[in-house]
Amino acid sequence: MRFLWGNVTFTLLFSGAMFLFSPPFLQADEKPTVLATTTLIADLVRSAAGDFVQVEALMGPGVDPHVYKATQGDLSKLGRADIVFFHGLHLEGKMTEIFSKLGKRKNFFAVGESLSRDVLMAPPEFEGNYDPHVWFDVRLWQSCFSFVSDRLIEMLPAEDAGSIRAKSEAYEQELSKLHSWVGEQIQSIPAPKRVLITAHDAFGYFGRAYGIEVRGLQGISTSSEFGLRDVKNLADFVIERRIPSVFVESSVPKKFIEALQSGVRERGFDLTIGGELFSDALGVPGGVGATYVEMIHHNVSTIVDALQ
Ligand SMILES: [Zn+2]
Question: How many angstroms is it from 222 CA to the middle of ligand 1?
Fold first, then answer.
């Protein structure tokens, strides 16, 4: 019969009574449930073990994780799921307290916190916190993926391990190729225009990994405010460097970046919105940017087209 590592004790205790009833937690034909907080993490789980588990993301496409508050329904889902993957590093800002309690359970795993502290960025404006947006360096997300894949192999029935391993190796190769492609694409933008301006500071790791300067109007989290002075400073920078385009994000209101655009235009310079980037959430299933690989492709193509 199929059982999860966390339920081994239960199964052993009741194995004598197996002839009489099936365990309530997992029927023989039922797939274990894996709950991820974000669509990005759900995508990692699917890429490793999509055939063997039922995956669900608490926060859907376009949802901003920094300000998301868990509902009563979310709490019961967290309690019922066989395995839970959350990001950590304060990405789920309003759920930090929940995870500081539940996160110690044996079936809860913090994906972002699996990375070594040496590779994490902690810019001074983040006030002592690490930047959680690690998925924008494909190599770091690849490390997060192997963490997820290893935990799934440990937790899921042993007979699934071979398939999960094979699928994971293929996916890791895809990510290696993606990493090289992103680097080549970004380097094709003329050096002076290689500047990425968005509403919130989600692209720090992207900038570090692929050699593009990054400026944001808000800080690390979308919950921080920006003022007129921030808009003016960024407008000065855009005009001085003759930056042609800035970008809106799918999980952040457009009005922030539109304020910058008006600020620049009022001074007689043009500034276009180069397109919409996915920052903290994937696109809707079947649409643009529905998987991590497609999201990176979409973002990079949008950036390169707008800044050429
Ligand atoms: Zn963010």
Answer: 6
Whether the Cβ atoms of residue 134 and residue 144 lie closer than 8 Å to each other = yes
Q: Say how many Å lie between the CA of residue 173 and the centre of ligand 1.
A: 27
Distance 230 CA to ligand 1 centre (A): 18
Nearest to 247 by CA among 224, 285, 281, 279: 279
Write out the two tokens for 50.
């999509």
Residue for token pair 């087209």: 305
Q: pLDDT value at position 220?
A: 56
The CATH architecture one would assign to domain 182-307 is: 3-Layer(aba) Sandwich (3.40)
What is the longest distance spanned by two Cα atoms in the chain? 81
CA of 142 relative to ligand 1 center, distance in Å: 19
Distance 202 CA to ligand 1 centre (A): 5
203 C-alpha to center of ligand 1: Å?
9
Q: Are 127 and 221 in contact (CB under 8 A)?
A: no
| Helical spans, DSSP H, in 17-103 | 39-49, 72-80, 96-102
pTM (2 decimals)?
0.87
Distance 52 CA to ligand 1 centre (A): 30
Choose between 65 and 219: higher pLDDT: 65
Rounded distance from Cα 53 to ligand 1 centre (Å):
28
> Where in the chain do CATH 3.40.50.1980 domains reside?
5-180, 182-307
Is residue 277 within 8 Å of residue 230, measured between CB atoms?
no
* Rounded distance from Cα 47 to ligand 1 centre (Å): 22
Task: Please give the Cα distance from 142 to 148 (Å, whole number).
Answer: 10
Q: How do residues 285-299 score in pLDDT, each as one tens digit?
A: 999 999 999 999 999
- Taking the centre of ligand 1 as the mean of its atom positions, its distance from the CA of residue 251, in whole angstroms, is 8
Mean pLDDT on 178-206: 94
Neighbours of 105 (CB within 10 A): 12
Annotation: CATH topology of 5-180: Rossmann fold (3.40.50)
